Backbone:
């Protein structure tokens, strides 16, 4: 009778050890996930800053080009009112 109880206790101990090992593995995976989650926003923020800088640069270049085009067109259309009216 004591041998049977000892046997069942040993079996329970083995199963508890296996569960404990599974929990440790799950905890390690969770910790790795949490670390990656903490690092991810920093990478995202850096990417955002770089994209914003690039967009700002592109917008400035586009404005400069529009200004150059407007200046070029303005020089072509410096005719007086009557010259434009007559078409000379």
Residues:
């Amino acid at each position: 009778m004591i041998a049977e109880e000892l046997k069942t206790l040993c079996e329970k101990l083995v199963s508890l050890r296996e569960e404990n090992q599974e929990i440790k593995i799950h905890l390690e995976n969770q910790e790795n996930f949490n670390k990656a989650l903490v690092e991810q926003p920093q990478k995202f923020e850096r990417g955002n800053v770089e994209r914003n800088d690039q967009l700002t640069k592109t917008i400035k270049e586009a404005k400069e080009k529009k200004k150059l085009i407007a200046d070029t067109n303005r020089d072509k259309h410096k005719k007086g009112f009557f010259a434009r009216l007559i078409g000379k």
Notes: Residues 2-76 form the longest helix (75 residues).
